[in-house]
Specification:
single chain; alpha/beta; Four Helix Bundle (Hemerythrin (Met), subunit A); Rossmann fold; 434 Repressor (Amino-terminal Domain); 8-stranded mixed β-sheet; 19 helices; 8 strands; 9% strand; disordered C terminus
Length: 433
Amino acid sequence: MFESLTERLTQIFRELRGKGKLSEADVRAGLREIRQALLAADVHFQVARDLLKRVEEQAVGAKVLKSLTPAQQLLAIVRGEMARAMGGRATALALTGRPAVVLLVGPAGAGKTTTAGKLARHLTHKGRHPLLVCCDPFRPAAAEQLATLAARVQVPFANVPEPASGLKAALAEARRNLRDVVIVDTPGVPPGEAPPPFLGELVAEVKPGDVLLVLDALTGQEAARIAEAFLPLGITGVVLTKLDGDARGGAALSLPTRIGRPIVLVGVGEHPQDLEPFHPERMADRILGLGDLQGLAERLQEAAGERLEETAARLAEGAFTLEDFLAQLEAVGKAGSLSQLLARLPGVKGVADDPELERELRRSRAIIQSMTVEERRNPHIIGASRKRRIARGSGTTVQEVNRLLAQYEQTKKLVKRMRRGRIPARFNPLDMG
C-alpha cells in the first residue's frame, strides 16, 4: 500500500535527519521534495499545494528550526496536515432508521457488489443483523453474485428486480425478520455517464441514512472527477476499494478535500474480512512509513481475541509453551495474509510481499501440530529422535524444526523481558530515529 510514496517520503526525512540542525532553506528544500513526491503519487496539485502551505507556515518558525530534533518536528507537522487532508478523524456510518438503510452507488467495476458482502460481514461482527439486497435491474448476474457473497458471509439475501416497489417490500421483510440494517447494491454506472434516474428516486423515497460512493483507489485523483456525478444523490461518505494494490495514494489523499465527503471504509484485500474503517491519522502514519500498530492489534483482536486473551493470562503467570506459540501463529493466520499484517509494522517494506513468509508460517504451524501434547508443553524433551519424527510428520526437515525451536526460545525471552518491564509498554513511531 502506497509503496512508492512511502519510500520517497522516508528517504526525504532520512536525509533531513542526517543534517542535524536545519536552516530555513533546508526546510523549504525538503518541502519542495515532498511536494514533488505527492504530485508523483497522483495527488491533486491543489491538495498538495494547500497541504504544504500549511506545513510551511508551521515549520519555518523558531519552534522547529531551534528544536533539538527539527526533522522529527517537521515529520510530526507533515503527519498532522496529511491526516487533516484526509478528513482529520475517522467517520462512522450513521446507520439511522429502522431498519437502517445503506445504499451503495458508484461507477462500474469499482467493486460495489464485493463491498456489499464485506460490509455485511463487518456489520455482523459489530453485532448488527444485516440483509443484503440486490437492486440492479440491468446486470443479469448481479443478483447471483450477491447471493453467493451473502451465503459466504452467512447473511440473508433478497433480489429486487423492480427497484421502487421491491425495495419497500425488502424493508418490510427486514422489519419482520428483525434485520436492523439493509445494504442495497445498485447498478454500476459507465464512466462519464450520470447515475440512472431511479437512484435519485430511491434516495428521495427511502431516505437512506448512508449513501456510500464506492470508488477504485487505483483511479488516483481521477476518482474526484468521477465522484462529482454522484454527489447529487446525497453522498454521505466514500468506500475506497483496492487500496492494498495502490502504490501511489493519490485517491486517498485527494478525495476528502476535493469532494467534501469523508472516506468511511477501505477495501484492503479480496477476502470478506478485508474491509476496514478509514482512520486518517493511522493512514498518514502508514504513508510516512511509521506503521499502524493499533490497526494491527485490532485486526488480531477481531480474528482471535478470545484465544489471545487466554494466552495473555498464561503469560501473566510466567508460562509460555509451544502451545501458546502455536496460538499466536494461528491468530496471525486468522487475521489475514502475513504480508498485510507486516505492512503495518514501522519500517517494513519489500519483505512484506515475500510469499516465503506465508510458507514459513504454514510450516511452523505444521511442525508444532506434529508434536505430542507433552512436547508442546515441555520443549526441552525434544531430542534428535523426536525431531526426526516431527520433521517426517510435518513434511519438513530437522533443520526447520531446529529453526522453529530457536524462534520459540527467542520469543520466550522477549516475553520474559516484557514481563520485567524492560520493553516500553507504549510505542510512539515518531520517537524512531
